[in-house]
Amino acid sequence: MAQQVRGVVAPGKGEPVRIETITIPDPGPGEAVVDVQACGVCHTDLHYREGGINNEFPFLLGHEAAGVVESVGAGVTEVEPGDFVVLNWRAVCGQCRACLRGRPWYCFDTHNAKQKMTLADGTELSPALGIGAFADKTLVAAGQCTKVDPAAKPEVAGLLGCGVMAGLGAAINTGNVGRGDSVAVIGCGGVGAASVLGARLAGAAKIIAIDLDERKLATATSLGATHTINAKDADVVESVRELTGGFGADVVIEAVGRPETYEQAFYARDLAGTVVLVGVPTPEMKLELPLLDVFGRGGALKSSWYGDCLPSRDFPMLIDLYLQGRLDLDAFVTETIGIGDVEAAFEKMHHGDVLRSVVTL
Ligand SMILES: NC(=O)c1ccc[n+]([C@@H]2O[C@H](COP(=O)([O-])OP(=O)(O)OC[C@H]3O[C@@H](n4cnc5c(N)ncnc54)[C@H](O)[C@@H]3O)[C@@H](O)[C@H]2O)c1
Ligand SMILES: [Zn+2]
Ligand SMILES: [Zn+2]
After folding, report:
1. Which pLDDT band holds residue 1 (cuts at 50, 70, 90)?
2. CA dihedral 332, 338, 341, 342 (to 10 degrees)
């Protein structure tokens, strides 16, 4: 029997979100209905609301979520009702050219539920990143559910569903940070702060946090940054070089998504070092660099999609480390809010007041 629940819907370009009654179909083959317990507010939700992703309104927002599997459809073997899961937007297909080459964290053909959730009048909803979890319940592909230890609080576990995983993974997966490395992180919002934490977890010896906002630098320090630079009143490239014996950092993570900060990352890196771009630029942005410098400085220029994570490998491991007290994920939950507070959370995000507001359901 299809169910009716509450959901946060973006009705049209730039319009404020509304709580609507939405219809959740029973799970079909390969699908699962999840009773959502917590869902973080991410910039991407705001981008959807503003029409910055595509025009397929109305959207059902929310995608950084954890909850309990309520029911599964035919043929589902990976999860069962009662499992505590983190939702992911990388349900790997196992058959695309990336998967077949043994690189499922790049999967080029990830899947979502085939059936549609709808408004009461039957209008089909587009769930954000194929998830749509600012809702009491949501319908996803079973592969989007990753089982983790239920001892973790849902508002913390759900963070791995997007921004925090992106930041942690930019350091530990894409950047391949190793023991003793020097790492610089440009932009220490939710994503960059997670990169700082990831660099610490990987054993970096020097972790330089860079931001324009002293509050973000203070959080980064509490998460393991050994040095901070306020980009408002310092030359970022010069300052990183000074802190690294004149050479630059082994790995520089760009978590802003702008050409000028990318250029800083490019030059703040040691010879043969790595730049990781995890910040997402907008279509009109352009980058100009002397090709001779691209050659002459060597190393690797990489982009990180969702932290190059493999949910089945990374989510349970990171939750275990969290439960052992070795990964401070609590620091990312600035506040828990109700389902009616998403607009207010967008406003706080805009002013840089929060790392994450998390809706609890
Ligand atoms: N690659 C992925 O898979 C992925 C996933 C999630 C988010 N993201 C992207 O990561 C980026 C960061 O997301 P977030 O949630 O941390 O955003 P955020 O707004 O919380 O953080 C951005 C931070 O950058 C700082 N900043 C802005 N301009 C700066 C400058 N010139 N120099 C130094 N610092 C500067 C801001 O003060 C802020 O603290 C966004 O572009 C987001 O879209 C990427
Ligand atoms: Zn694939
Ligand atoms: Zn997100």
Report:
1. confident
2. 60
Ligand 1 atom 3, closest CA: 306
30 close to ligand 1 (CB < 6 Angstrom): no
How far apart (Å, rounded) are the C-alpha atoms in residues 276 and 130?
26
- CB 286, CB 263: distance < 8 Å: no
Which pLDDT value is given to residue 199? 98
Distance 282 CA to ligand 2 centre (A): 26
Look up residue 179 and give its two tokens: 């023991």
Structure tokens belonging to residue 82: 């009662």
> Which pLDDT score, from 0 to 100, does residue 339 have?
98
Give the per-residue pLDDT at 201. 97
Rounded CA-CA distance 278/55 in Å is 24
Summary mean pLDDT of the chain: 97
Residue 255: CB within 6 Å of ligand 1? Answer: yes
Burial category of 121 from C-beta neighbours within 10 Å (exposed 0-12, middle 13-18, buried 19 and up): exposed
- Give me ligand 3 centre to Cα 292, in Å: 36
Q: Is the Cβ atom of 248 under 6 angstroms away from ligand 1?
A: no
| Three-state SS at 60 | strand
